[in-house]
């Protein structure tokens, strides 16, 4: 599994709790995400970015430790996170161990709305590349699915689970084990029907199946 620290806003207390006892095969830092990685006493394996917002003393510290650094110009076509996800997709494809989640991204929410929207789109790029990636913050876990999926109640990030059609309508949607179930339903793009569902009280699993489309899944704790 790969962890990406990107250059967004962080709740360090949440990060410490979330990362406690978790190990990753590779840690990638983009720009000021390196500051957070350093604050959390994690050692990156790869550092990527244009470095217009990183603490240069921290960057120098890791450079002196011979951590690989990929420097790009400030004026470029890709965001730093896109460069990191392209790298993560490359590594995940080479070393696929069939984990449910291949890439975890921290620091992708908060701040500028345009960056948030672009960051979500990058999860779709990963999905189309055969890699399951998710964005996590103190409130939510966000990821995409394009095929039938079973979610276990004990693994839910929080009480609520929202299903949002991403690339057009989602057709033939059937939900089982949910508080609000559907059978062969068309979830329309641009409508809010799939927001704030929950696991049924007497169920331990939730099954999502559909015939066509892509779903954005958001598990939220409040």
Give the overall shape. elongated
CATH hierarchy, class of the largest domain: Alpha Beta
CATH topology of the largest domain: Rossmann fold
Find the structural class using helix and strand composition: alpha/beta
The arrangement of helices and strands along the chain is EHEHEHEHEHEEEEEEEEE
Strand content: 25-35%
Number of strands: 14
Tally of contiguous helical segments: 5
CATH architecture of the largest domain: 3-Layer(aba) Sandwich
Strand order of the largest sheet: 4-3-2-1-5-6-7-14-9-12
- Helical residues, percent: 10-25%
Can you characterise this structure?
The structure is a single chain. The longest helix has 16 residues, at 113-128. The strands form two sheets. The protein has a ten-stranded mixed sheet. The protein contains five helices and 14 strands. The chain is an alpha/beta fold. It has helices at residues 12-19, 33-39, 56-64, 80-94, 113-128; strands spanning 2-5, 26-30, 46-49, 69-71, 103-106, 133-136, 140-145, 149-152, 160-165, 170-176, 182-187, 197-198, 205-209, 215-220.
């Amino acid at each position: 599994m790969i962890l990406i620290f990107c250059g967004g806003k962080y709740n360090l207390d949440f990060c410490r709790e979330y990362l406690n006892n978790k190990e990753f095969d590779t840690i990638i830092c983009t720009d000021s995400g390196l500051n957070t990685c350093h604050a959390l006493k994690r050692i990156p394996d790869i550092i990527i970015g244009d470095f217009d917002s990183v603490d240069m003393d921290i960057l120098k510290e890791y450079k002196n430790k011979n951590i690989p650094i990929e420097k790009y110009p400030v004026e470029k076509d890709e965001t730093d996170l896109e460069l990191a996800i392209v790298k993560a997709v490359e590594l995940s494809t080479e070393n696929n161990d069939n984990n449910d989640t291949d890439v975890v991204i921290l620091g992708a929410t908060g701040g500028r709305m345009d960056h948030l929207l672009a960051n979500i789109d990058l999860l779709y790029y990963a999905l189309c590349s055969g890699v399951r990636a998710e964005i996590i913050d103190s409130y939510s876990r966000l990821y995409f699915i394009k095929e039938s999926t079973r979610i276990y109640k004990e693994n839910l990030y929080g009480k609520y689970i929202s299903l949002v059609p991403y690339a057009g309508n989602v057709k033939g949607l059937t939900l089982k084990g949910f508080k609000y179930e559907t059978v062969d339903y068309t979830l329309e793009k641009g409508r809010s029907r799939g927001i704030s569902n929950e696991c049924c009280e007497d169920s331990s699993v939730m099954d999502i199946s559909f015939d066509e489309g892509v779903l954005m899944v958001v598990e939220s704790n409040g």
